[in-house]
Amino acid sequence: MNRERTLLLIEDEAANRTAVKRALRDSGLNFLEAEHGQQALEILADRPVDLILLDLAMPVMDGFAFLERFRALEANHPIPVCVMTAWSDNATR
């Protein structure tokens, strides 16, 4: 039995979460949402996901701190992470 593919969207701005879900509405993905990295780690402890879309600038735990903690969790290594950010400086990229 195949389970539905799930995307974890980690983004603090509700309008941005809505825009991403609208852009991917025909993808057949199930969406889980987190407003910051700590909330995302809590979701990952309970739910399997197939892909993570990650904002970098967030309150509580930003994307960089999330990635550090996420990578330390051995079981999560096969989950692809796509980083999205409005930051345009080369150091951040």
Describe what you observe in this structure.
- This protein has helices at 14-23, 37-46, 63-72, and strands at 6-10, 30-34, 51-55, 81-84.
- It has 93 residues and is an alpha/beta fold.
- Helix 2 (37-46) packs parallel to helix 3 (63-72).
- The chain is built from three helices and four strands.
- The model has no long low-confidence stretch (mean pLDDT 85).
- The longest helix has 10 residues, at 14-23.
- The protein has a four-stranded parallel beta sheet.
Helical fraction: 25-40%
Largest sheet: 4 strands, parallel
Overall strand count: 4
Please tally the helical runs, counting DSSP H or I stretches of 4 or more residues. Answer: 3
Q: What is Rg?
A: 13 Å
Structural class: alpha/beta
Mean pLDDT: 85
Short précis:
The chain has 93 residues and is α/β, with parallel strands linked by helices. It has helices at residues 14-23, 37-46, 63-72; strands spanning 6-10, 30-34, 51-55, 81-84.
What is the topological layout?
Elements: E1 6-10, H1 14-23, E2 30-34, H2 37-46, E3 51-55, H3 63-72, E4 81-84
Parallel strand pairs: 1-2, 1-3, 3-4
Helix pairs in contact: 2-3
